[in-house]
Write a structure and sequence with these properties.
The structure is a homotetramer. The first copy, chain A, is of the alpha/beta class. The first copy, chain A, is 39% helix and 18% strand. The first copy, chain A, is built from 14 helices and 13 strands. The first copy, chain A, has helices at residues 14-23, 35-47, 61-72, 86-89, 94-97, 114-122, 149-161, 173-177, 188-192, 222-228, 237-246, 251-272, 295-301, 327-336, and strands at residues 2-3, 54-58, 77-82, 102-105, 131-138, 165-169, 195-199, 209-213, 285-286, 289-291, 302-303, 305-311, 314-320. In chain A, the strands form 3 sheets. In chain A, strands 2-8-7-6-5-3-4 form a 7-stranded mixed beta sheet, sandwiched between helices. In chain A, strands 9, 10, 12 and 13 form a 4-stranded antiparallel beta sheet that branches. Chain A has a two-stranded parallel ribbon with strand order 1-11. In chain A, strand 12 and strand 13 (314-320) form a beta hairpin. In chain A, helix 1 packs across helix 11 and helix 2 (35-47) packs parallel to helix 11 (237-246). The first copy, chain A, starts with a strand and ends with a helix.
Chain lengths: 340, 340, 340, 340
């Protein structure tokens, strides 16, 4: 069975396993104070062209989101997200578990706009309501869409004008940066955002997310916060090692481009067969809509998530390509789809 | 330089890396719903002779402690620990971060006794004070000491009599179970404790702690709690894989015994040289006391933690052996120590 | 200037001040363990025809909401509310501050329906999302609307079928129970709800909300929870005294009816003048819509809250009558309004 | 029966009830934005000679403590208190409920010293432990003892040197400021402390604690925090009214002095009869020790708290005088005590 279920189904890129094996029984300093973490942080600072950035390595996305948001907000402050945002829907209330409300704006494509944010600011004007203090965006989003540089700049400008922090969840930043229509670069991120992370888990790492604060003062005592929220890994060198490998010889973007390339092949093939999409996603998450009667046959040969019913006779599914997806899998899927 | 700094400095046992490599680009179900986790849980249930136990895999000790304690306590309920307990001293307030107070009893050897627990119960009698609801013990403790079966049984009996839950932190349970003087077995744990975990991080795993609830009803909705507290690993199969390997052919106890064997060699060698110990630890953590003037030379050739000043001219250091420690390292250390 | 700003602007009914004066320098047991609290609780149990109910007195509505919700939910569990619900909009994230997410359903009239609740249940099906566990309704609602017995029964039935707790915020239950169209009684509340409160603050008390758990087992250790969340009043006898007076000779409903009577007079008068309403509220909160140019004159003579712009030339204001509102005030307002 | 149980048993000073009655049906702005609160805040600023201080009125002590501490600390920061401190022992984990650890130092008399604080700072040196950020002292303490100006100045100096905030719980500051041996004044408080409160509940108010931040910047958005933690009273004008009355014609200190005067009479009388004290308290809380066989007779005629067994045959009780205690009560107690 071929899997299009997600981009974190496979173990990790072989280069990472090789580096792990090379460690042997070497003794490493604990908790991320090792040379692998230092090297990886240095590479990331170069990549984003921000020599003063504070870089910390966390284990996963939900943990990164709750740890960062809680570090930067006072108890009564809230974070603004799209209604489909991961922190709002898919984290079992982890952000609320740290005491903070998530304010949401509806939107068909998973993206926030300055107008949405302004509407929330305008309706929160006194101490009987939470105080909006941060804007959370994902790139790419839950629906596979991306922000252009102009869009993210407009949000960033609004945030600075209104004293809001801008936090970009980059669990799939690799997919975003090589997407059709993207004009953002790594170097734009610290310029536009106060804090963001570069996702490893969904782009070939064994595990790990690299959290970046453009201004190191904002990261003051962040290691206390990581430990306080349960996220400090004893063998922190594992996280550094993953990113050190991924940011050697541009492996990170090469893996993302491979996933993107296969997503394009899959999208174009489906489009050629007349299959409609719920969202026009330019990244490695596709949301095609199928007649219900075609799904049982597909489900026997392919693994994927069901997004939901579109109407009584049609269902949207999610197909995700990864660094490990094969052309063979894509072609097999396309072969299994009837032309309309 | 030889390291006696801790038992989580090295990557992991080679058998684990082999299994990781064998995964290749196989697609695995996410979040711990895979066959590795199922296999590992089955092996653990056999090992502890508790076929109904609920087994969950978490990433690290602090995360396990806060997630478990918060899952089982109501907001105003508290957990009782030794004054040197990890949750009290070395977790940056992670348990308090979930809203719960840690009540402590002083004790020279890192262990709780029924008398200490009773004293706390007796002084907490109304709603103006927190309600003690759980007892937290570590085996082995922060000071390397262990509980005998009689001692743990006495605490367990007291807990049941007073409606307290008993939680055993087994981050170093391997070290405890092969210690000199130990008479506990894995099968005793679910019989005496409501919840405990078997530590992987400190005994050869890449990462992971296996949390066991003797009564599965107590683990109801625990997966929600894991996710809520940021501890659900996307590639959860990694955790299952580690424990599947460790509980194949008794590797887990073989690794612990190797560390123990070298700790005995180190302890006996130091004792033969007249070096005194702060605590009489029967496990892989040793606390020898040295004249201050001897330490600079030791520190140049060996890495270890300084526990603290004993008096104006003496300092206690901590030496930890691991599954990866070599006889050569032990002998080098002994050779560097003057006989008194 | 006449005030229609809210129903908690005035001190309290004179009968309460008289009872306070009568206390003199009598020494009372602290923290609500006094005879006033016992007497008031007894009167409430009679009133609601639920002899086993657990009754606790809290100081205010936000405090009651957060204390109750947090007492009954596990960390990852969530409460369902209308989008306009007080806990969602007007409590500065107090519920989230205790760690729980508020899930909302949109609705024009401030009320929840079984269909809305079902939709939320259907979209929360695994551990990656919070677990809905409680339904929160207000009667009367933020928009002055009320639940009929049939409506509340349908919600109650749904809750029981799906294992949800039903919590009714009765900060304005007096207003609801004497509203046009109401067919609920005090005795219905413990039959249909798991927990509710009878608001004092907005119906003539100096301060206080009487929290009622139909099943005392649900209130187990609730006094610990009150103290833990900062809500235990040292002079708790003050709270009991207020409710003891309010539930003597039916004063509570007499005060509510007086407010209701004046609300009817105001509503009918406005309707007769052709003034439209944003919501058809049958209680003491009215939401008339005025041309913007009429407001400056009204604002000079009357105090009220502005609800918001309806369109570019019209604004909705909120007029609230209380136990202390006078016919003179109502008539003066009506006299100031032009007929359309 | 005469009560020496506590200083918050009685309703309130008659002057407060008179002012309440005078309110009649006057409509007041809600949530503390009224003229009573403004007037009271002004009087307090004059009293403490700190014209820029931010003054907020809260309902009770536990609420004030948790709201203030949580407002000023980041999630991983901790507060230092005496082992007998109210926040540590008698608040059912309210501070931990907001996520913060309480670090304690033992001490026989309920007071902290610079040496105790330094010892805690010295043992908390990295991110694996909470970060001490605030010192909490009470004046008078749980044991009725007080801080001299030199003692509080030494703590204040230490705090400033180490970047710690100093918070003084003044629930019984009236008792402290008229105690034998006191040399502190109201004007010293904002000079030495970052935040403190002046207790109303235990000195004649119906309810209320006046929270003072010397530097208004430290109180930024504090009204959000009050609401977030459930402490914003709808009828906030009640709190302002209490303090407006108490700080008119020096009533606050006159009430405290009356309690103090009777405490002296009681202490001297007991001492004359040879009764020993557990602590040498100079304030309105006395801790005499009685042979167990004398207590049943005392308990029949007088109400008091039992502090605890001193040895097998002696028990310490707590006697508290208040603004409402009578000479008759004191003399009756003394008459009931046998001379040794």
């Amino acid at each position: 069975m071929y899997s299009f279920r997600n981009d974190y189904s496979e173990c990790c890129h072989p280069a990472i396993l090789e580096r792990l094996s090379a460690l042997g029984t070497q003794a490493n300093p604990g908790y991320g104070t090792d040379s692998c973490c230092a090297a990886a942080a240095g590479k990331i600072r170069s990549l984003i062209q921000c020599p003063d950035a504070a870089v910390h390595f966390l284990i996963g996305g939900t943990q990164a989101n709750m740890t960062i948001i809680d570090a930067l907000l006072r108890p009564f402050e809230a974070v603004i997200a799209a209604e489909s945002g991961h922190i709002h829907v898919h984290e079992t209330g982890a952000v609320e578990g740290t005491g903070h409300k998530v304010l949401t704006a509806p939107g068909a494509d998973g993206k926030l706009t300055p107008a949405m944010i302004l509407r929330i600011l305008d309706s929160h004007m006194d101490e009987h309501m939470v105080k909006p203090r941060m804007v959370y965006v994902s790139d790419s989003t839950e629906l596979g869409t991306i922000y252009t540089r102009a869009e993210l700049t407009a949000i960033s400008d609004l945030c600075r004008e209104h004293g809001l922090l801008l936090f970009l969840d980059g669990a799939r930043i690799g997919a975003a940066l090589c997407a059709r229509g993207n004009d953002l670069t790594f170097a734009d991120l610290p310029r536009l955002c106060d804090v963001f992370y570069i996702g490893g888990t969904k782009n070939g790492a064994l595990l790990g997310e690299a959290v970046v604060f453009a201004d190191p003062e904002l990261a003051r005592d962040f290691r206390y916060q990581i430990k306080h929220r349960g996220g400090m890994l004893a063998k922190g060198f594992l996280l550094g090692l993953n990113f050190d490998v991924l940011f050697t010889d541009n492996l990170y973007m090469r893996l993302a481009e491979r996933a993107q390339c296969l997503a394009v092949r899959l999208r174009d093939g489906l489009a050629a067969r007349g299959v409609p999409f719920l969202v026009d996603s330019p990244t490695n998450q596709l949301f095609p809509v199928f007649p219900n009667e075609e799904l049982p046959a597909l489900a026997q040969a392919f693994s994927y998530e069901v997004s939901g019913a579109v109407d009584e006779t049609h269902t949207c599914i999610r197909l995700v390509t990864s660094w490990a997806t094969t052309e063979e899998a894509v072609d097999a899927f396309l072969a299994a789809v009837h032309s309309r």
